[in-house]
Structure formats: C-alpha cells, structure tokens
Amino acid sequence: MIHSLFLINSSGDIFLEKHWKSVVSRSVCDYFFEAQERATEAENVPPVIPTPHHYLLSVYRHKIFFVAVIQTEVPPLFVIEFLHRVVDTFQDYFGVCSEPVIKDNVVVVYEVLEEMLDNGFPLATESNILKELIKPPTILRTVVNTITGSTNVGDQLPTGQLSVVPWRRTGVKYTNNEAYFDVIEEIDAIIDKSGSTITAEIQGVIDACVKLTGMPDLTLSFMNPRLLDDVSFHPCVRFKRWESERILSFIPPDGNFRLLSYHVSAQNLVAIPVYVKHNISFRDSSSLGRFEITVGPKQTMGKTIEGVIVTSQMPKGVLNMSLTPSQGTHTFDPVTKMLSWDVGKINPQKLPSLKGTMSLQAGASKPDENPTINLQFKIQQLAISGLKVNRLDMYGEKYKPFKGIKYMTKAGKFQVRT
Amino acid sequence: MSAAPAYGEDKGGSAGPGEPEYGHDPASGGIFSSDYKRHDDLKEMLDTNKDSLKLEAMKRIVADPNQLIRASALRVLSSIRVPIIVPIMMLAIKEAASDMSPYVRKTAAHAIPKLYSLDSDQKDQLIEVIEKLLADKTTLVAGSVVMAFEEVCPERIDLIHKNYRKLCNLLIDVEEWGQVVIISMLTRYARTQFLSPTQNESLLEENPEKAFYGSEEDEAKGPGSEEAANTALPARKPYVMDPDHRLLLRNTKPLLQSRSAAVVMAVAQLYFHLAPKAEVGVIAKALVRLLRSHSEVQYVVLQNVATMSIKRRGMFEPYLKSFYIRSTDPTQIKILKLEVLTNLANETNIPTVLREFQTYIRSMDKDFVAATIQAIGRCATNIGRVRDTCLNGLVQLLSNRDELVVAESVVVLKKLLQVRPAQHGDVIKRLAKLTDSIQVPMARASILWLIGEYCEHVPKIAPDVLRKMAKSFTAEEDIVKLQVINLAAKLYLTNSKQTKLLTQYVLSLAKYDQNYDIRDRARFTRQLIVPSEQGGALSRHAKKLFLAPKPAPVLESSFKDRDHFQLGSLSHLLNAKATGYQELPDWPEEAPDPSVRNVEVPEWTKCSNREKRKEKEKPFYSDSEGESGPTESADSDPESESASDSKSSSESGSGESSSESDSEDQEEEKGRSSESEQSEEEGGKRKMKKRKKVTEGQGDGSSSDEGSDSSSSSSESEKTSETEEEQVEPASWRKKTPPSGKSAPVAKEISLLDLEDFTPPSVQPVSPPTIVSTSLATDLEGLTLTDSPLVPSLLSPGSGAGRQELLHRVAGEGLAVDYTFSRQPFSGDPHMVSVHIHFSNSSDTPIKGLHVGTPKLPAGISIQEFPEIESLAPGESTTAVMGINFCDSTQAATFQLCTQTRQFYVSIQPPVGELMAPVFMSENEFKKEQGKLTGMSEITEKLTLPDSCQSDHIVVQKVTTVANLGRVPCGASDEYRFAGRTLTSGSLVLLTLDARPTGAAQLTVNSEKMVIGTMLVKDVVQALTQ
C-alpha cells in the first residue's frame, strides 16, 4: 500500500519524509517537481503521477504538498483520503498545519505517522485513539520533555483500540458536561449576467463539539428530516435507526467532529439571500473602463448579512483601478489583477456600492472577457434550507448536559458572472 | 527500544540532512514504557546478538497476558526485516492467528504481508494462516485479513467461498479502510461467481438511446421494477439473481452514505460493475456529493464519472448542473467537468449546454477555452440537430481576438467540415482569408490542408492561397511547410495550368530546406506528380494517391472503453495497467455452483434481512457483557479470558432458555418441536433482545470477538441448559410459570417500542413485569382463566398462605369476607398487589351496596377499590379484585367495608413474600446482580432441612409458597436460586438456598430492602424447617 510520504513546501524543498517499508530515494520526487513546473499553479499539479517504478499521489493543503509513494495498484481515493486524514490529524494535534509547526513538532509528527500506518496499511486513524497513544503537545509537556528527554508517547495502554466504539476514548471525565452542535450551510451558486440563478445547491454540515462524561448515547431529531435525503455520516451514527425513524442516534467521539454532512441538490429550489448589481464595461476607443457594483439582500428571512467580501479576478488588460466604496475597504493588486472589497454588514437602507474607473493598457484592444465576481457572506441564526433540530436527548448517563445548537448560513462557491 | 537496532538500520539515511530521524518504533516504546521495570530483562535479551536469546524473549512477550502487549510485540517482531528471523516470525504469526484477542489476530493479519515480502517461499504456510483468519467472525480482523489476502494470494478465490456471506454481513461494521479493500475484492469475486444481471438487457443495448431513457424511468420506480424489466423482455432463459449476489448489493448500498470518499467510490464501482442497469442509478447522487470534496477527490471522482457517463448517460443527466464550471475551479477539474458535460449532452439539453459553453469561451483560462471549443466540436458531431449552430458559432470564433481560440476553432472546424464539405464552401472561403492573419502553425496547417482537400469547391481562391504561401514559405513553421507542399501537389493535379510554376517554385524551395523531412517530402512529391521519362507508372495514379476520399474523423471521448479497467482503480485513472492490478474478470457463461458458499451453520442459509440484523447486532449482545464484566480487558490472562468467553456464551444461551422455558414447556408436553422451528423462534427472541441492547448504547459499527464466539457456541449451551432444566424442574414450578412467564417477554417488547421509557438495561437486565400495560394484564387474566386445567394448580400454590379471614361471619352479621393474594399482576397499577376478596352471604337477607369506604391509610399505602357489588343474595358468594400498594412494607392496609347499612373496619396485612413479583433471569445475570448486592444487603441464615424437605420438588414448592419469587436455573443440583422484585420500588430480591445432602443448609437473601430481606429470611426458614 502506501510506501513513503514526502512533505514538500511551496519552494520545492522536501522537509520531511517517512518510510513505512524500505526506503525510497527522494530522487523519486523529481518527477513530481517536473509535473509541478508544467502545471504552473499548485492546484493544477495532477494528483496522480506515474513514474517508471512508482506512482506519486499527492494532495495540496496549507501550501504543503503531501506526496505519497506507492508501488502497486491501490484505489487512488484510498491514498488521497488517507493523506487528507493525515492533514486533519496534524491540524487536530497542533491547531494549524504549516511547515514551521511540523518542523517544531517533528517528534510527535513521526510518532503519529508511525501509528497511522502499519506496513503501509492504515492502523489507527481515529483522532481519539491516536491521542490516547501519543499525547498532543502542550507547552508544559514540551518543557518537561526537553528536560527529561521523554516523549509524548502515552504511558497508558491504548485500550481504546480494543473498544467497540473505536472513535471514543474510554474514561472521559468533565466537570461541565456540554454538547454543542453547529448547523452550517454553504450555498454554492452560479448567477448569470442577468441575475437569474443558473445553479444553486446547499452543502450542509453538522459539526459537533461534545464534551460529555462517560459513555453518553445521544439522539438528535429534526423537525423536517425529509430535507436530508443525501447525507453522509460519521461512522458513529446508527444507520438503521436513521433509515427507519429518521433520527440520528450515536455515541459521540470525544471533542470536535463532523457528525453529518448533507447536500440539497440543484433540483430543489434554493433561496438566494443576496443579489449583485454590476456594470462593468470596457470601451474600445478609450483606455478607461467603467466599474460599478452594488450588493443587496433578498430572501434573508429578516436576518442581517454580514462578513460580505467581494473578490474578482480582473482581466490582464486592466492596469489599475480607482474606485470609491460607499462602505468597507477595497484593494486591487496590479500584479495578480485581483480586486478585493471587504464590505462588512449590509444595511438594507443604504446598499453598499463600489464605483470607479479602470485604466486599461493603452493601445491594446479591449479585453473580451468579463470578470466573474465571487462573493462571501455569513448569516447567523439561519439555515437557509430550513433545516431545524427538534430535540437532543441523552441516554446512558445520569447527569444533565448543557446543550446548544447554532445555525449559520455561509456562501460557499458563490459566483456571479458578468 | 526492543527492536531498535534492526529497525533503525532499515531506515538509515532516510532522514534528510540536518533533520532528525527517530529510528525507534513509537508503538513499542509506548507499550514498554508502560511497564518499564518489568520488561528490562526482556530488553536486554533482545539487544543481544544471540538469536536464541531473542527468540526466548519474543516467546515471552508473545505470551504476555496483556493482549495489547502481545499485539505490539508481534508488530515489532514482524517489522524487523532480517531474513534470519523468518522462522520465528512464522511461528509468532501462527500463534497469534489463534489468539483469544481479536486485536492480536488483527496484528497477525497485518504481519502476513510483511513476512511475505521478506520471504515469498513462505506463501503456502501463509495461505493457511490467511484461510484460518478469513474464517474469523470479527470486524476487527476482516479488513486486515482481506488486505493480506489481496497481497499474498489474490488468485485463491476459492478461499472466499465459505466466508463470502459472512464478509457481506460484517461489511458495514468494518472500519473504513478495510471496507474499501473488501468491497474491491468482492467485486472481483462476484464477477467470477454470478451471472451477468444485464444479459437479458443486451437486446436493449442495440438501441442505446432507448436504453438510457428506460433506465432512467426504472430508477424512479426503484429497485422493485427490476423484475418487471426482466419479465417484459422476451428472455431466452429467465434470469434470476443469485441471492448471494443480491446480498452483496443490498449490504453495500448503505455505505454510499459513508463519510469516506474512498468507500463511496468503492461501492459506486461495485454497483457499476455488478448491479442490474435499473439499480446503478443510486450511485449518481453519492458521487455528485463527492464533488464538493477536496480537489484531489474531485479529480479522481470526475475521471470515473466521465467513464460512467459514456456507458450510462441517463444516470447523471439529472445532475447536469452540478457539473457546471466555476471560474475558480483548477484547470484540470474544469477540463474533466467539460468532458462529463459533453458526454451528458443530448438532443434535449444541448441548448443549455451550449449556452454554458458560450460563457466558458470567454474565460481567461485559455487552456480551458481550447478544451471548450473541442467539446463544442464533439457535440456538433454527436448531435445532428445542432451541427449547424455549432458550426456557425465556431465560425464566429474565427474573428476572436485571441489567436489560440481561433486556432483551436480552425482545428475543430477542419474536422467538422470533413463530414460534409460540399455544403460549406463559404466556410472554407472564410478560412482561406484567415491565412493572412492567423499565425498559429497548427491552425495554418489545418487551413491549408482543407483548401487542398476541397480545392474543387474553391477553384479560384486555392491558387491564390498557394501564391501567398509560396511567398512566405521560408518563414513558415515545418508543419505548415509540409502542408504547403501538400497543397501544391493537389493543385498541380487538379489545376496544373495555373499552378505548375508555383508548384515547381515551392518544391525547389523545399529541396534546400534545413529540415530533412521537408526535403524528403519535396523529392517524393516531385517524383510522383511531375511526369518524367522513366517512372510514369506511379504518376498516373498520383491523383488517386493524393485525392483519395478520406473518412471523416470520429470525435470521441478519451474515456471511451476505459471501463475495461475496474473503476476507481489506479489503472483506470492512468488508463494503463498498474503493477499488481488484478483484471476484472468477465461474467461467466454458466453460473458456478452456488452451494460452495453454503456454510454448515444453519444460520447462514437463511439469507434475509433478518439474518443481517442478527449478525450485525450479535456483537452488541456480548459486548455489553464484556464491558460491564470486571474481568474484561487487558489484564486478564488467557485462561481467564477463555473462561469469560465461555461464561458469556453460556450466559447468552441460558438467558434465552429461561425466557423460552415458558413456551417450551408447554410444547414439550405435546411433543418436542422440531429443531428448525426452535431455532426460528430463538432467532426471533434473540432479535428482540438484541434490539434492546442496541438502544443500550453500543456503537452501531462495532463488534468484538466475544460476540461471535458466544454466538457460535450458544446453540449448544442452550440445548444443554434446557435439558438440565427439564430434569431439575419440579412439576409444580412448571405449571406455575406460564402466566407470569408469559408476561415477561411481552413486557419486554413494550419497553422496546416505547423508547421514551427507556432505561439502561445494565441496571435492569430484565425488564420487570411491572411495566405490563393494562390491556395486556387483562388479556393475561383472561388467558389464565380459560386455560382451565392449569387454573387450580396455578392458584393454589400461588395464593401463598391460602385464604385469610378478613371479616368473620359473626362479626359481619352474616357477611363473611376472606381474601387471598392471587399473585397476578394487578391490572390498574403495576405497583399494587392484587388481592382477591371473597364475599359470601350467610344471612337470610340480601346484602346490598357492598363497597369500600374512606380508608385511613398509613403514608404511601394506597388502595384501588373494587367496583361496588350491588347485591349479594342469601347463600351466594362472589369474588372481587382489589389492588393495594403496600409501598414495600408489611404495614397493614386498613379500610372500611361498607354495606348499605353497616360499616366494618377491616385490615389486610401482607406476608412479606407477597410484596414481590417473580423475575426471570439467567444464572449469570443472577450472579452479576448478586455481586452488586453484598454487605449490608446480604442476609445469611443457617438452617437444617428436615427430612421432609429433601426433595427438590418440596423445597421449591415451600419457598414459592412463602414468597412470590421466580426460580432461576442453576447448574448445581443442590443449590436453589430465586429472584423477584418488590412491587413498588422494583428492587431486586435474590434468594439462594444452598442445601447440602446432610440436611444442613444455608439461606441467603440479597436485597436493597434490608427489612424485607430479614423478614423474608425468617419466613422462608420457618416454612422450610416446619
């Protein structure tokens, strides 16, 4: 299965390598560098690169390439999924996953990687079990380890591996028992020139932060479970129960986890909470172009739209822009031609707008493409699909937990064509 | 660290300069550091160079009582890549493969590929181990052993037969990585063992368009329509899907909802390769969902969708919009989405698709624009209706400012024009004009080729183009020069009058070109077309050679026919066979014998939903035992583990038999029911039990080996415990059981359905009969009454001390009132003791209006009055039932008994034995509960049994007369166990009588209610010694 792993930063240095079988020379990465050069942009590096003796499978996250080397036929998604799991684990352990952090925690990184794969086959990938084996670093522990020369390897036997609920640690204790659930929905949409919706989908997730003592058994029910016809679950969710009763019944992992993700497809009607009015024009004769956009709310169910950020990749012909926003701040990078406008909150009485001119390359003909506008926004206390949690019950433990549910709607890949 | 030297060597040099390398195995470190001192000597032994010592040390570790240490030792041992260790490793693996702990067995499975890569000569022995581990029934092992199977002996498909059904059933509970490996292996297996579900659909395939629509409709109808589709066809031989084939499809389907993209993809490819056409549709939704994932996942999924969408277009058509492209997508994703959109385009959706394409053409990403133009070209060739529209669109693009766009359009136009050149003379003219402006070599070459090929459609322009090209010949790119020569030659052949000189000029220029290809071409062409003295033979045929009709190119997807690779595989993605790729076999012509998958255990032969649930939930059953049992886990040595194993198995067995005994007993009188029936019933009951255990809170996706161990042996132990019971049971007991015994399982069911009333069964292993609902209790009452032969014997021992006087005939002025404790659940309130009151009128006037007056009751005690008896004629008697909640005390309930004329104060004081109701539990449950009720809650009394009390029958009768308790089956012949619960608080009352043959005996009562316990002991001792 997975033979080796190389971590490569954006400047092309291999700063960490790990081998689970025999050592594969790092010269194998030359094939990767070649592909990287061809691709010009990091995200265009093909995830699978065949070389004469090996296959290189890579994922690109946090400006780091995680390159796995395999020798024989393996489902590519198996490896890619695993690599993403590695990144998630690092993030879970260190808070962020970046080159300096990995270098700082190199011991823990090696220890974790060793436990995650055995001879190239995934062994312990659940964060709860891993944390039982190898403790995440804290400042105190780092200091103690430096002085005593000990490691973060846990001194308890990892009984979690034997558990029937492998995702949950045993012997969890909290003084405050809390369970928080965040229902977060992202709208992916493409809006065409005239403002009509070409496609709109909702990607929802329920992220949970559960800090409960013992072995609680939770059930979560919805007011309108019919909305959830395309879902994927954390392994802890009892599928049969969902099938028959449309109730989520599960023993939660300890800490943060994604309980469920769902998809409300393009076939359903999706409410679009914002609109963008735009007028971007280039004239053939002059070297100036007009630029004007206004953002306004619609179908927000009375909630305010906040955290609005408008970005747009301008055509190469645009040299500079002189714009004045009615609110917020804007920047234009003349090198990457990226315009970004941080709007903030939308006040329905006074719609935010950005107006001005673009100076174009003199003499060149007008660019024949119009930029697309990407939008980000947030709406608190609203799940745009209308999903509502009915109640959360706990069985198996006697105490009364504190429960909280939060809704949020965000823009996912929200694009307006001009 | 134990294996540090060897391990470190292997990794030597792997660390980059200046970066630390940790040559130890953290796993082993973690384990050993846990018990540092204890393993010091072992470490020393391991660090020596003497193999014998190492072996000795390993032997000791491998035999460590802690399963985690055993497992880690094996993991370290198997990671030492030194050939000399092979025999030791083999030994250790064999040992571990039959370890008690599933975790150790899992580690053994992991070690197999390691040993195999070290020494492939061990293959045969390793296959034996794999065979053994494949038979393992735990989810922990399944994934790892199949992985070993795939790596060591993927060709030994025969090893799977016996385990096929088990693997299908375990699948949902295996961890994600294992699921992927198992599903992909089962796909191959199914291809060799089952018949193609689409064989009858081959008729449809002749008309693919129709088939697509058909499949779509079927999708909507759901899986049920599959049979309909099959019968509708004029089938030569009706196709019936093998139930095992169906089992695989059914058990993998829920995994489409996995959070892991790899699992979803694995199921999708399984459905694509194995499912009937009508059912494949279900995977589309899941795959579309994956498109929201990381771009690498998107990349792989889109590759597979592209292949699928060629074969089964209808499947993805509803999701067309999900493949629309965003400007922020990486280019490689854009191009794949474009591929899918093109594959999905058809007569109906082409207008929307083309409109989308128009937006894409204006993108800033030029590679993507070029791909879009090609896609438009493909749509134009595939869909006749839009050919002209596309052509016009492409011609318009020719005036685009971007040269790349123009060039790509020319290339695509060239291909399109080849299909029907005659109608497009004007397009060719327009292209000819472009030679002045367009600079992209490929486009120029294409235009020249087109003009040459169709020069008869543009007879005036062609020579002029050649003139211009001759002028700029030296400055052209090689590819263009070749086409100029080509054009010259063709014109020379068709229009030699105008172009002879031009041609000769071009050929002369070419003769001195720097590129030898061009020089060669010029020489060759000259010989062909210019008639010379010697070789006229070829030149006569020159026209045929140059202007032969050429077939139009077919524009098709690069993903066509990629599905001969297993989807989701690396080979499919690369479109090349990767090392170690296992071919996906073709469906067999004739189905191989399906009976090879039959397993002796009768459970497996029933292939139904129910079986699945059974298998799935079995683990919970014993897991709960394991968890609550104090011995479970790490520190128990193998012996005690095995003991607990067998314990749990007997527990489960006897647990069932006790709940079964009721029905069983009745049946036995008629004659023994058949084996199969019995197991059928067992299954049903077990199911119920299990469902309950699920609610208890075990994870859905989990199991342990104890679970299956117990299940395999449970059938045996059940039988033995049954027979034992039969021998031991006295007749009276047997007769007494039915009413209350029946209530137990039914009550259980109620508690199951009503989830709000859920209480964790670890506290209450058996639901008390107190939950019996009103209607049920009345039903039961009716039942006991109609069961006439049983009634007298049922009531007489049940009514404890027999009739007690409540009101004497004299004091009651002719009204005599007696009462008995019926020991039936009181219908109104389960906490109440049901008291039968017998009235008889010995006076000579009718007594009217008998009812209960205002009671004066001590705190907590309450009464459910009997309905007023209107009149009792002289000499007659009647019975009424009333309920009294004694609140678990022996305080008397005092109340008024009123007639129309008189009031009598009466009181009922219950014997302590009537304050409880029997509970049925297994021996183990009994022991477990007893273990919790020690110390203050335990009351022990020594006594000597009189001679009259030597037989089982009498002892049991005496005890049950005193106290309303249920007998608990017991292995030892001279020990009696009874269990009950107090009615009000539901506290357990456990009574044990240990009778020695000598007559000495010891009575133990365990109960939270100490007062009740003490009184009960007193009463029972009194009853037994009298």
Largest sheet report of chain B: 6 strands, antiparallel
Task: Please give the count of helices of chain B.
Answer: 45
CATH superfamily of the domain at 915-1025 in chain B: TATA-Binding Protein
Overall pLDDT confidence of chain A = 87
Helix content of chain A: 10-25%
CATH architecture identity of the largest domain in chain A: 2-Layer Sandwich
Alpha carbon gyration radius of chain B: 44 Å
State the helix count of chain A.
7
Overall 3D shape of chain B: elongated
What's the CATH C level of the domain at 915-1025 in chain B?
Alpha Beta
Low-pLDDT segments, ≥5 res of chain B: 1-37, 202-235, 602-800
Protein structure class of chain B: alpha+beta
Largest interface: A-B, 112 and 113 residues
Strand content of chain A: 35-45%
| CATH T-level topology of the largest domain in chain A | Beta-Lactamase
**Number of domains as seen in the coordinates of chain A:** 3
**CATH fold description of the domain at 915-1025 in chain B:** TATA-Binding Protein
Global Rg of chain A:
25 Å
Assign the structural class of chain A, choosing from mainly alpha, mainly beta, alpha/beta, alpha+beta, or little secondary structure.
Answer: alpha+beta
Low-pLDDT sequence parts of chain A: none
CATH architecture of the domain at 915-1025 in chain B: 2-Layer Sandwich
Membrane topology (chain A): Peripheral membrane protein
Main location (chain A): Golgi
Subcellular location (chain A): Golgi apparatus; Cytoplasmic vesicle membrane
GO cellular component, one term (chain A): axon cytoplasm
